[in-house]
Amino acid sequence: MSRTSPGAWILPYSCVVGQDDLKLALELNHVAPGIGGVLIAGQRGTAKSTIVRAFALMMHGELPVTLPINATDDRVVGGWQLDALMRGETREQPGLLEEAHDKGLLYVDEVNLLDDHVVNIILDVVSTGVLSVQREGLASAKQLAFGLVGTMNPEEGGLRPQLLDRFGLMVTAADLDTDARHRMIRTVLTFEEERTRGTSEWLAEAERHNGVVRDRLEAARERFPQVEVPDDILRLCAEAAGQLDAVGQRGEIVATQAARALAALDGVLRVQPRHLLQALPLALRHRRPEAAHGGTFDWGRDDHARIKDLFDAG
Amino acid sequence: MTTATPALEPSDDARRLECAFRCAALDPALAGVLLFDLEPRLIEPVSRVFAAVLGGPAGPPAARIPLGAATRDEELWCRSRLERRPDGIAFTVGPSPLVDGAAPPPLAVVADLASLSVAGMRAAVQLIGADLVSVEQPGLRIADRPRTRWLALCRSEDAGRVTPHLLDRFAVRLAVPGLRTVPDAGPTDAPLPHDTFATTTDRAVTRVHEILGPGAGPRRSLALARIARALATLGGHREVTAQHCEEAARLIGLRVTEPTPADDRADSEAPGPRLPPLPRPGDIGRRGGRPAKRRRSEEKLPLLASGPAEGVGPAPGATLGMPYPEDEAMALREFMPLRNPWQRRSGPTSTRGAVVGTRRARDLRDLALVRTVREAAVHQRIRGNREFTVAPVDLHSNLRAPAPERLLTLLLDHTCRGDWDWQDALTPFLQWAYTSRAAIHVVEVGGADAADELRAESFAARGVLDPRVLAALYRPKGRATPLAHGIEQAGQVLRQAFRRQGSALAEAWLVVVTDGRGNVPLRASHTGRLHGPVAVQGIEDSLTAAASFAAMDRGRLNVAVVDTARRPYGDLPFALADTLGATVVEGRDSHGG
C-alpha cells in the first residue's frame, strides 16, 4: 500500500525566516551536486526539516526521497512488492537508495537516530558506489550515486566519523534574535491561516518569490562549469585546511567546489578568496579532529582567526 | 477585565482540560497534549473525553491507541492480518491506526511518558505536530501529514528523565494535580469550526514573547501563539488579540506578566514575511478600503460556559502549575534515549530481555513464530508448494531489550558521611554500573528519615539514573547505625539475585561505605526493640553478618569497602573488609578531604 499526500503543507522556502547558512548550504549543493550533500545540525524547532523539504518542493516540485528512522532494511535496499507476492507474482520494488539515485538526493531526517545496520548500508553504497543485493531470491548489483542531506539534533547523540565525512557540507542552525523570532512566528501562523483559505494572494506571492530564487539557482547551476578556480585559491585552500588540522582531503575538494558554486551564485566566472573564506566553515567544520571524535561543531572566532591571516596576506 | 473569549475557570481543571482538548482537536499543530501529575485512575475518563471531543458531537468517539513500555515498532506503523482462506493462508498489510488517514483522527494515549518504549518515543518524535511523516515498512509507504492526536501523562518529577527532544513536541501542557473528577458525558458543544483560523495580529505575537520571555524556544512560542489562535477561533473571533494570548497562557498554567506599554501599531498591523514584503494577510480581506468589522464582545460564542463574562483566570501573576517542569528538573537522563538499544550478539541474557521487535534469524534460538509464519505466508504462492512451508529465509527471531547482566549493591552508612562528599569515591562504581547497564540495589543505614532507625532500608532500581539513587547519596544522617542489618539485607539481595538470575547474572559488586561503627545489634533490628546496653554488639553482629559472604559465588561477586578514615577506630573498615573478603578503597583521606 502506498499513500502520498497530494499537497504537503510545507512553508514556502522563500518565506523561511533566518537560517541563512542552512539555505546557502542547500543552494550550493544544488548548484554543484558534486559537493555530495549537507548535514544540518541544530536544536529543536529550528526549521531544519522544513527548510530541506521546502527547498525540494521549490526546486523539484516534489518532496525529497526521505529515509525515515522507521525504515526497514528491505525498504532501504529494495525487495519484492508484498501484495504482488501474495498474488503469486514477482515484482521488484526499488529501495530508497535506488530512488535517491534517480532523483539525486537522499534526505535522512534525524540521521543520528538511524539504526547502525542502516547506517552501514548507506556507508557501503556511498563509499563504493555500488548497491549489491543478495537476499530473498534477489541478486543484483547497481551503480548508485546520490547526495546525502541529513538533519539532526546533536542533543540526541552524534554521528560516526565515517558517515560524518560523507556529508559534503555541514551547517548548524542558529538561534534567531528577537526580531527574527517575531517574524518567524508571524510567518508560520500566517502560512497556516492562509492555507485554510480557498485562494490566497499571500501564498501566490510566496510562490512568485520561490520562482525568483529558483531561476537564480538554475542560472548559477548552468554557469557553474565555466567558473574557474585559480591556482592560488587551491593553494590557499590547502593551507587553510592545514591550519585547521582538517582530517582527510575530502574537505579541501568540497570547499573548492563550494567556493565555485558561490562564485556562480555571485555571477562571476572566477573564484575569489572571499568565496573560499565563506565556504571553508561549511566544508571543514565537521572534518576537524574534535568534531570527528564527538566534539562540538561550532565554528567560533578562534577558528576564523586561524585562517584569517592567510586571507589577509593574500 | 472583561473578555470576548470563552470564559475559563482556571481553577476548574476539568474545564481547562476540555478546552485544551478542543484546541488540540482544532489545530493539528497542537496535536500533543501532555498532562502533568494526573491521578492514574483518571487516565481512562480523561482520554474518553478527549476521544469524544475528537469525534465531535455527532460522530463516534475517536479510537484510542494505548502506547507504553511494551510498544514495538511493528505495531506502531503496520497492521498485518493473517487469514485462512480456501486456497491457504492470506496475509494483508495496512497502515496502523496511528498513521491511518481515517476520520476522526485517532488518539494515542501514553499512560506514563517516562516509561514509554524507545520505539514509542521515536514514533512520537516523528508524528506529533509534524508537517509530514514518512513511513517505509514492508508493503507500506506513506508520506502524509499526521493527524493522530496524543495524550501523554507524566509526573512532574519525572520530566527531567524524558528527553527534551520528545517533550518539546507536546505543544499543550497542563499540570492537573488537583483534578479529582472528570465529567462522564462527552462534550455537547457546537462542532469545531473547520473553515478558517482566526488571524493572528502583530500585537498578539508581541504579547506571546512578553509572556514567555526571551529564553523561550521557538516551539514554545509557536505553541502559545497557536493555542491563543485556537481559543480565538473557537470563540468565533476573527482576530487573535493579546488577550487571547493571556488566556492561552493561563490555560496552560503560565504566569501572565503585565504587558509592556502598547506601542502605536494597530493590532492588525503586520510586517510582511521576509524578502520583499508580501501582502499582509489582513490586507487581503480589506482590499478596497474599510477594515473588516470586528466582532463585538457581546457577539462572542462561549465555549465552556454560558454565564456572564468574567475575568480570565486568577489575578495576573498567579500560576496554575508550571507547564515546563523539565527546565528545573535535576534528574539524570539516559544517554541517547532515542537510539534503539544495542542488541547483544551473545551472552546469557540475549534471550531474556523484553521483546522489543523482531529481526532476521541467525540461528534457531528464540524464534518469533508469528513473524516467521507471516513471512512464510507471503511466499507461499510463489513457491508453489502444496502445503504451507516455512523456508529458512522466513525465520525471524525476537529482538530483545538488554536485560541487566550486572548488579551493583550499594550499602550506604549515612552516619559516617558528615560533611564528606562520598560521591567522588563512589563515582567509579556508579560509572561501571551505568556503562554496563547494571541494575542497582541500595541498602541504607542511619538515614535521618528512616521509618525505623533500628532497621536498614533498601530499594531496587533499574539503573543508576533512577532519581532515588541520587537522593540516597545525599540523605541526612540520623542517630542509629544498624550496620549489621544492612549487611544482612545486602547479603539477601545478592543471594536472591544469584538464585533468580542464575547464570544470567554475569557480575555483581557490593560496595560498602561505612566507618564500621554499627551501634544496633542485629536482634534489635529484627525485633524493633533495644534490649539493654549495646556496647560492641553492633560491631560484632556486623562482622558475623559479613562472614556469610564467604559462601557466595566469589567468581562473580566483587566486594569493596570504602574507607572513611574516621578516628578513632580507624581499623574497623579494614576488619569488616577482611571478613567480607573485600578490597579496601580509599575514600576520605585521613585529613577529612
UniProtKB/TrEMBL annotation, chain A:
GO terms for molecular function: ATP binding; ATP hydrolysis activity. InterPro entries: ATPase_dyneun-rel_AAA, ChlI/MoxR_AAA_lid, Mg-chelatase_DI-like, P-loop_NTPase. Residues 37-167 form the ATPase dynein-related AAA domain. Residues 237-289 form the ChlI/MoxR AAA lid domain. This is Magnesium chelatase. The lineage of its organism: Bacteria, Bacillati, Actinomycetota, Actinomycetes, Kitasatosporales.
TrEMBL record, chain B:
Residues 305-316 have a biased composition (Low complexity). Residues 254-316 are annotated as: Disordered. InterPro entries: ChlI/MoxR_AAA_lid. Residues 206-267 form the ChlI/MoxR AAA lid domain. Pfam families: AAA_lid_2. This is Magnesium chelatase. It comes from Streptomyces albiflavescens.
